[in-house]
Amino acid sequence: MDNTGNSEQAVVSCLRMSARLPWRKLSDNHCVVWGAGAEQSLVQIQQLVSQINLPSNSQKLYQALQAVPGHFAIIIEGDGWVLACVDRVRSHVIVYQQEKDQLQLSNDIKAFGVDDVNRDSLLELQMANYVSGSNTIFKSVQQLQPGECLLWD
User: Fold this and answer.
1) Peptide bond before 55: cis, by omega within 30 degrees of 0?
2) Per-residue pLDDT tens for 51-89?
3) Which residues pair with 151 in a beta bridge?
4) What's this model's pTM, rounded to 2 decimal places?
């Protein structure tokens, strides 16, 4: 699990979900869950979220997500924290951009409107037809890797 939180109060400044991609907003008593993927997976994840005290038990949720069948990606927003996770094959993309104490998340890299091209990553994309690791072709935008979670608190 990747924990990029800092000691100051974290701010999720923007959650930009593209309407052209199949994401749904699922509500819970203590947080908002955005999800994409198989219906049965999202129902199971929503049940897990309602049973686990987040964000203090995020490691427990991460372990439970490893057993969820099917394809999914989730973004869970709580009071001053956010948890984003993708399945083990990353069937749905989550990209993020962080600046100081602000985090922006999206399911579409175009939502950030950035143009700071990472020439090394662009060359890698041209040669291998993909960009490795959490890099993207933009310097300021990262992506979750398969099976990875990001906790921002």
Assistant:
1) yes
2) 888 888 888 999 999 899 989 999 998 888 899 999 999
3) 3, 83
4) 0.84
CB 113 within 8 A of CB 141: no
Query: CA neighbours within 13 Å on the CB side: how many for 147?
Result: 7
Separation CA 139–CA 142 (nearest Å): 8
Three-point CA angle 131, 119, 128, nearest 5°: 35
The pLDDT of residue 96 is above 80: yes
Residue 3 corresponds to which amino acid? N
- In angstroms, rounded to a whole number, what is the distance separating the alpha carbons of residues 64 and 68? 7
Beta strand 32-37 with 24-27 is antiparallel
Which residues have C-beta within 8 Å of that of residue 93, sequence separation ≥ 6? 73, 86, 107, 108, 109, 143, 144
Tell me the one-letter amino acid at 41: S
Helix (H), strand (E), coil (C) string for 99-148:
ECCEEEEECCHHHHCCCCECHHHHHHHHHHCCCCCCECCECCCEECCCCC
pLDDT exceeds cutoff 90 at 136: yes
